[in-house]
Every structure is written in C-alpha cells, then in structure tokens.
C-alpha cells in the first residue's frame, strides 16, 4: 500500500505537476523555444550532464532555435553578448540561483554565497588575498613548482616514457596551489600521483584520490542542483552513492591540510602564504573567521585554483602542439625575448609578450575551462534581457561555450587563431571583446584570474621553450571535454623530447 502511495505521489510530482505548470504557463515561458522535453522537465539537462556534454547540448539547441532558449521548465538560456551585462553586470541586480545550493555546505564560501550582502562582505574581506601585488610576491613559489614540472617531464624523457600531461598539469596545480595557500606542497608531482592524506573530524587519517574526489563530487552537485528545492530529499536518497563519499573525501582532504596549517601557526611558524592573508587583513588585524568559514574558503580556493587552471593549461598545450605554425611563431617570440637561458622564465620576461597572451586568450575562448551557463534569478519586476522581457523568478544564464564562439563576434569562430587578437582592426577587436568573458563579469566574476594568468604565462612559456611533443595517438589525437561544472579535459598522452633552445 505504501509503495503504491509513493508511486502515485511520484507520478503526480514528476509527470502531472510539470505538465500542468507547462500548460498554465504562469511565467509566460512557452513563447521561448525549447529542445525536446526541456521545457517540461529537468531530465533533459540531467541526461546531457550525465554524458558530460551539457554544454554541447545547449550549444546545439541555440544553433537550431536561436538566442533565447528554454533549457528547463524555469530556465531561459540566452546566447547574446548583450545579455552578459544585463545578467551579470554591476548593477544588474540578479542573484545566484538556488542551483548553487547543490554543492554548498553548512558554511558558504565566496563562490556559493547567494545573499548579496554576505557575498559582498566576503569578497571585500578577501580581496587583498588575490591582489596582483600579493600574487607577484608569491612568484618564487610558482617558479619552483614550474621547475619541478619541467624536471618531471625530463624524467619521462630519460626513461623513454610517454607522459599524461593532463595528469601532470593537475599534479602541478594541486602542489602549487597547496603551496600558495598552505605553505606546503602535497607532493603529487614528485610522486606522479594524486593520492593525498585526508582526515575525518575524529582525527582518522587516510588516503584519497584528490582529483577524482573533486570531479565526482562536482558532477553529483551539478546534477542535484537542477532540482534544488528537492536537495534535502535527494541528498538523503543518494547519501550512500560513491559520489557522495567523494564529496566527503574532498572535505576531509581540505580539513587535513587546514588543521595542519593551523598547527604550524600555533607552533609559531610564520609563513607568507595565502592562508596567512585569509586569517588577517592587510593591516595585519585578525579577521576572526570561524573554522567552518576558513574550511569553506580553503575548499573553494583549492577547487577553483586547481581544476580550472589545469583545464586551461592542458587545452593550451594541446592546441599549440596541434597547430605547428602557431607553435613556431610563439617560439620565435619567446626565444627572442628570453635568449638561450635554461631557467624557467620569470614573470617580468613573459608578462607582456603579445603572441603568448594571444595564444592564452584564444585557448580560453575556443576550449573554455568554464563553459557552463552560470544561473541567475530575475528579480522583482522582471527584466528585459538582450531585447526580450523575462518575468521575475525565472532563471537565466548565458552559455559561456556558445558565447565564446559567437559568429557575429568571432570570424571563423571554430578555428584556433591567436592572430585574431593581434591583427584584427579596432572595430573587430571591440566586437570580440563584447563576447570574450572566460572569467565572467561583474561582482561575481573570477577573483583568481590574476593567479590563473600568472601560472599560464610561466608554464606555457617553459613547456613550449623546452619540449617537443608528439601525440601518442598520432596526428589524429583528439582531446575530450568532460563538463562536470568546469569543462575538464580528458587524458592527453604525449611523447616528450628536449628541444634545443
Ligand atoms: C583559467 C582559470 C580560471 C577560469 C576560467 C575561472 C573562471 C571563473 C568563472 C567563470 C567564475 C564565475 C563563477 C560563477 O559565477 O559561478 C569564477 C569565480 C571564481 N573563481 Fe575563477 N577561474 C579560474 C581560475 C581561478 C583561480 C586560480 C582561482 C583561485 C582561487 C579562482 C577562484 C575563483 C573564486 C573564489 C570565484 C568566486 C568569485 C565570487 O563569486 O565572488 N579562479 N571563476
């Protein structure tokens, strides 16, 4: 009897209720075209997220249906550059959607705080952590980590082994960010794996795979977030799912490293890392953050600071070695700027090289690390977004992947062409800049972009100068994209050799 009652309730909830809402159409959304059953149910998005190809399904829908597409019962995706400012700009007034609750813990961090005042306070408190001046002071740490990466590639050459550069770049970003944040590396690069220590609240220390923990947890949170109002139920139903265990492992990795860092501080070890800036403002006064908030901020930094930059670095290496003409031009620029030095180039020597910058921008455009349409809620009174009125309470987003290949803004948008950032006339460049937002815009835009550029400049210039690669699978080698929330690249195996500089 109970099973029958639950089944009836489920059918009512999953089939009848969406159909009734769809037909009554209280928010006037039926005027917007939608692919397949997307206007009726979130299952359309869930299906494509489970294939890791959500961005592609949204892109295909826009190509077929136009700029304003209904991708879920209460969600309009808008692939128009004008929508960036309308939705995300300073003063737009649209707040983050409850989808962000999917990954939120008891304490919110800077990226998942949805209340405006809470977010503003956090961002203000932590802005100094990400200031360019502060990042530049961390250059020795970045140079050291980059030198270790170079020596690991050399080891593969000495042993005549192919290298999975996607994994090694991820080991690099993990070690580097742990060093920047906590003042200690996690040793992934040296070991050639991502198995690190985690610690439960009752002090049990064990080992876990760092990359997998983050990826599985993110995938789960992304999908559960589509029906955010059901989170208390779905989190209970899936409590034993391995991806939930992955989330616990991730939290325990952060807990282990944060408590270790706090103990260092207790023993009076003075460190010049981001963590010390997290505890104190730029006048040296304590910020008095509760432990839950410290853990939350460390978690988002280790997440955002490693996963996106790994994607950006891997994508750039792939694109450069796939395009020998571009690679040769970049090498010419680097060689004439740096000469024959065998050291990892420093920031001053590469930060204003135009072609290097252009390669990085073009890679962020054509293979964005963050391709997901970032959801926001239309506030009271509704809004005109890219020319169409959308009622209050509707979720809207700009699909980053689609925006970055907008054919009105980028000529021959599907081709990797760094020259477009240098050789285009002003009008063309202005048009490109209306759509080139790999870090988003406005008050919720990426706060870590200075770190991201710093890393990319040093790593890309080092690898390109020192190494030749051939693809293990020959010229036909492709690089998969697996969108969980970030767009993670698939494995990328290369045969490395030393280039004579
Ligand atoms: C190529 C690398 C990166 C890309 C493409 C990228 C992209 C983005 C994007 C698109 C957002 C907006 C997310 C949203 O609205 O939900 C964001 C936010 C954020 N990013 Fe990055 N990011 C990168 C690197 C980093 C790094 C190195 C850090 C360092 C910790 C970082 C920390 C953050 C934080 C804390 C936020 C939340 C900001 C807020 O809501 O105020 N990111 N990033």
Automatic annotation (TrEMBL):
Name of the protein described by the UniProt record:
Benzoate 4-monooxygenase
Name the InterPro entries on file. Cyt_P450, Cyt_P450_CS, Cyt_P450_E_grp-I, Cyt_P450_sf, Cytochrome_P450_monoxygenase
Q: Which UniProt keywords apply?
A: Heme, Iron, Metal-binding, Monooxygenase, Oxidoreductase
Question: What CDD domains has UniProt attached to this entry?
Answer: CYP67-like
Residues at which heme binds: 446
Top-level taxon in the UniProt lineage: Eukaryota
Family, according to the entry, reads as follows: Belongs to the cytochrome P450 family.
Q: Does the keyword Heme apply?
A: yes
Keyword Magnesium listed? The answer is: no
Which first-to-last residue range defines the signal peptide?
Answer: none
Obligatory cofactor(s): heme
């Amino acid at each position: 009897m109970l099973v029958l009652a639950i089944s009836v309730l489920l059918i009512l909830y999953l089939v009848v209720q969406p159909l009734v809402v769809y037909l009554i159409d209280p928010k006037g959304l039926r005027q917007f075209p939608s692919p397949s059953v997307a206007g009726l149910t979130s299952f359309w998005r869930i299906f494509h997220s489970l294939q890791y190809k959500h961005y592609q399904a949204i892109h295909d829908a826009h190509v077929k249906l136009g700029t304003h597409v209904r991708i879920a019962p209460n969600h309009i995706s808008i692939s128009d550059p004008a929508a960036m400012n309308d939705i995300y700009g300073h003063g737009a007034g649209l707040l983050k959607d409850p989808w962000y609750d999917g990954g939120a813990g008891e304490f919110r961090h800077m990226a998942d705080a949805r209340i405006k005042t809470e977010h503003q306070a956090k961002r203000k408190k932590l802005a100094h952590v990400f200031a360019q001046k502060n990042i530049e002071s961390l250059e020795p740490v970045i140079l050291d980590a980059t030198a270790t990466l170079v020596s690991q590639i050399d080891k593969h050459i000495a042993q005549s082994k192919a290298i999975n550069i996607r994994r090694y770049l991820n080991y690099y970003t993990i070690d580097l960010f742990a060093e920047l944040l906590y003042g200690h590396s996690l040793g992934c690069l040296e070991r050639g794996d991502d198995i690190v220590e985690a610690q439960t609240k009752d002090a049990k220390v064990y080992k876990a795979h760092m990359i997998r923990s983050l990826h599985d947890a993110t995938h789960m949170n992304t999908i559960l977030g589509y029906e955010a109002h059901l989170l208390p139920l779905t989190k209970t139903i899936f409590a034993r799912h391995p991806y939930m265990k992955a989330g616990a492992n991730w939290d325990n990795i952060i807990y282990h490293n944060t408590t270790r860092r706090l103990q260092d501080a207790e023993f009076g070890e003075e460190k010049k890392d981001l963590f010390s800036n997290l505890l104190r403002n730029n006048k040296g006064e304590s910020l008095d953050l509760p432990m839950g908030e410290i853990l939350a901020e460390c978690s988002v930094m280790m997440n955002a600071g490693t996963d996106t930059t790994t994607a950006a670095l891997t994508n750039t290496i792939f694109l450069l070695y796939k395009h020998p003409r571009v690679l040769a031009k970049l090498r010419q620029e680097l060689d004439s700027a740096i000469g024959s030095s065998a050291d990892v180039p420093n920031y001053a020597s590469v930060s204003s090289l135009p072609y290097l910058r252009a390669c990085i921008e073009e890679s962020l455009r054509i293979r964005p690390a963050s391709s997901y349409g970032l959801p926001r809620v239309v506030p009271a009174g509704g809004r005109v977004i890219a020319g169409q009125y959308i009622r209050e309470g509707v979720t809207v987003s700009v699909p980053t992947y689609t925006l970055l290949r907008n054919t009105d803004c980028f000529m021959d948008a599907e081709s990797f062409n760094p020259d477009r950032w240098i050789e285009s006339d002003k009008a063309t460049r202005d048009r490109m800049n209306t759509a080139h937002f790999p870090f988003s815009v406005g008050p919720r835009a990426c706060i870590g972009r200075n770190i991201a550029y710093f890393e990319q400049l040093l790593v890309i210039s080092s690898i390109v100068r020192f190494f030749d690669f051939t693809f293990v699978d020959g010229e036909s080698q492709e690089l998969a994209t697996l969108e969980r929330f970030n767009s993670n690249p698939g494995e990328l195996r290369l045969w490395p050799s030393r280039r004579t500089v």
